[in-house]
Design brief:
The complex is a heterodimer of chains A (about 90) and B (about 270). Chain A is built from three helices and three strands, in the order E-E-H-E-H-H. Chain B contains eight helices and five strands, in the order H-H-H-E-H-E-H-E-E-E-H-H-H. In chain B, helix 1 packs across helix 2. Chains A and B meet through helix 1, strand 3, helix 2 and helix 3 of A and helix 2, strand 1, helix 4, helix 6 and helix 8 of B.
Chain lengths: ~90, ~270
């Protein structure tokens, strides 16, 4: 799946997001360009990123920062740390 | 119509204009065409990784925001950027990371390997492999779960606290915390590698003992193998105990971060 995300770095939050099928890569790239052009016209410096992942869960794991705040990231890191400890 | 052929000069001039800003619509369209020209190389790399049983998250092309930020921060030219297209693989531990990096070296023999584990970049530890397909570089980030945890923590800190944090700047207390976590994760992974290798060695010796005929158990060879098994068990136990202590250090550092954030939130300094 392809995920198009408009992210406000300073706020640390997603502004808009949408999903595309793997076969719709060209459409996803066109949509990204349109958002970037629009942001540029309005003088808004959001990050627009196109990511491809096996699933939404996989995307959340590899690009957690788009979806969680700093405290949530630290807490989930603590949880992973404990889990790995039990696994050894 | 998407263009695929660009001269180095044309791309570097585009980079210079983007670096200066403001951006014209034609420059953004040209940048977009340039990014899309990495599409086939990206697909080839991701396909090869999938064939090896990993499912990376791909970044089809670096965002304009990140490209401009990198051009302004570093002396790099746009045509030299090796991470326009890339993907990320998060593996369980350092032993798996070593094995996966070795397998990537085999499938991409000309690839360059940037190992940031021993020489971290402002605390960032990972292995980056730059594979080149038909003259187009594609960056493969290989991180362990703990290295990834640190990287996300650092990136988000840069987003919401201070963009300079990622490159060694920002509030000193937070920078110390990040560097401290990076160090304890590195210490942990060092002993983890020892532990995982000891597990493998221990299993091999235990198998050798099990296969030894009963009448040989008390002879010299049998005693030597049993002694090796005892030594190996001791190494394992010591490594396990050290790992536990280092895990606690990681947990303490993370908790310190949460306390710091709670205090800042009370002061209204974070979003």
């Amino acid at each position: 799946m392809i995920f198009l995300i408009e992210y406000n770095r300073r706020e640390g939050q997603i502004v808009t997001s949408c999903e595309f099928d793997d076969s719709q890569r060209r459409e996803a790239e066109n949509a990204r360009l349109e958002i970037e052009l629009d942001l540029n016209r309005r003088g808004v410096d959001h990050e627009v990123v196109l990511l491809e992942a096996a699933s939404k869960d996989a995307l959340h794991r590899t690009h957690q920062r788009y979806f969680e705040d700093l405290t949530q990231i630290l807490k989930s890191a603590g949880g992973q740390n404990e889990q790995a400890d039990r696994g050894k | 119509m998407i263009r695929n052929a660009f001269s180095k000069t044309q791309i570097d001039r585009l980079g210079d204009r983007l670096k200066g800003g403001p951006h014209t619509e034609s420059d953004l369209r040209l940048l977009d065409d340039y990014r899309r020209s990495f599409g086939e190389a990206y697909e080839a790399v991701v396909r090869t990784i999938r064939q090896r049983g990993e499912f990376p998250t791909g970044r089809l092309a670096k965002s304009t925001f990140s490209i401009v930020e990198k051009l302004r921060r570093e002396s790099i030219r746009l045509s030299q950027m090796q991470d326009i297209a890339g993907c990320r693989v998060v593996v369980t531990d350092v032993v798996e990371q070593e094995q996966f990096v070795a397998s990537l070296r085999t499938v991409f023999p000309g690839a360059s390997v940037i190992d940031r584990r021993d020489k971290p970049s402002y605390g960032y530890r990972a292995v980056h492999i730059i594979a080149e397909i038909a003259g187009k570089p594609v960056e493969i980030q290989v991180r362990t779960a703990l290295q990834h945890m640190w990287a996300e923590f650092s990136e988000k800190s840069s987003d919401v606290l201070d963009p300079a944090i990622k490159y060694g700047g920002g509030p000193s207390a937070w920078r110390s915390l990040l560097m401290g976590v990076s160090k304890v994760v590195a210490d942990y992974e060092e002993i983890e590698e020892t532990y995982l290798n000891a597990v493998t060695a221990n299993e091999k010796i235990a198998k050798a003992v099990a296969e030894l005929p009963e009448h040989e158990l008390e002879c010299r060879k049998g005693r030597e193998i049993r002694k090796s098994l005892e030594d190996s068990a001791r190494v394992l136990e010591e490594a396990r105990a050290t790992m536990e202590r280092r895990r606690k250090k990681i947990a303490n550092s993370l908790n310190a971060g949460i306390s710091f954030l709670n205090e800042k939130q009370l002061e209204g300094q974070t979003r």
